[in-house]
C-alpha cells in the first residue's frame, strides 16, 4: 500500500505548496500595488509575470495529476499497489521538476521534458495496472 500512498501524499503536498506560493505572490503584489485589488477582480492577467507563472502551474496541478490520482486509487482498489513499483515516485519527481522549472526559469523545452516524463509515467502506470488487475483478489476471487 505504501508504494502508492506516499507518492500521492507528496503530490498533494506539491499542489498545496504551489497554492501557498501563489498566495504569497499575490499578497506581495497587492501590498505593492493596491490597484490590483480592483483590476484583478475579473482579470488575473494584470498580475506580474512571476505570479502568473505560479498561477498557471497551480492550474496544471489539476490536469495530468488527476490521472495519476485515478491510477493510484485503482491500484489501491484492486489491491495491487505493489505492481506500481517506482512509477508513482518517478511521476512525483517529474512533477516537482516541472513545477520548479515552470515557476522559475520557465524554459519551455526543459519544462516539456519534465512534462513528457510525467505523461509517459502515467501511461506506464495504466499499462502496468491493466496487467496487474488479473492478479487482483477482487477479480481472481
Automatic annotation (TrEMBL):
The chain crosses the membrane at residues 7-28, 66-93, 105-127. Pfam families: MAPEG (PF01124). Its main location: membrane. It is found in: Membrane. Keywords: Membrane, Transmembrane, Transmembrane helix. GO terms for cellular component: membrane. The keyword Transmembrane applies. This is Putative membrane protein.
